[in-house]
Amino acid sequence: MRFAPGATRAAAAAALVGLPLFPVLPWVGVAVALFGGFVLWFHRDPERTPPESGVVSPADGRVSVIREEEDDEGNERVRVGVFMNVTDVHVNRAPLAGTVETVEHRPGAHLPAFTKESERNERVRFDFGAFEVDLIAGAFARRIHPYAASGESFERGERIGHVSFGSRADVLLPAEYTVEDVRVTENETVRAGETVVAER
Q1: pTM score, two decimals?
Q2: What amino acid positions are annotated as catalytic residues?
Q3: Which CA distances in Å does 116 have to 58, 110, 120, 133, 136?
Q4: Of 7, 50, 101, 118, which has the fewest CB atoms closer than 10 Å, so is most exposed?
Q5: For the domain with range 55-198, which CATH number is right: 2.70.70, 2.60.40, 2.60.60, 3.30.70?
Q6: Residues 19-36: pLDDT tens digits?
């Protein structure tokens, strides 16, 4: 099993803390060891195979947002957001092939990622020019880990980052896509890099 970067180091640190506690505080030692195992499991990173066409989901989880909005140029665009709960894989993937123009970190709140108020949350935005991907921190997420940098090119379904412990991932579809092109519904379960969320 592959794991997100840094996961094995965090799990090993928990094990190093927990092992010496077993002789004197067995239950505390067990709890710390179990936490280390949970951290490793949470950051699992399974292989995914994208379908032949379509915009694929940037995240595992449940579709929580489908809406039209204006972009910075005043154009109507469609946003599809996926809420990741604690049991979902949290490695995020490129919904389409493209080259990253900018990666922007925006500080903010840490409100539940499935609520409307999460628009004020901390996030990292990948601007691919024709489309954007936002990784949004949730109530417990405190670390967004982008793998992409400006100028890097990615294939559809390729890993672009991960968020630790609950969050949301949005894709702002290219301008030519409309709501009629969306192939998922709110509350539908999707898989990063495999489920088609929109197609023309």
Answers
A1: 0.82
A2: 167
A3: 19, 12, 9, 18, 12
A4: 101
A5: 2.70.70
A6: 666 677 777 767 767 776
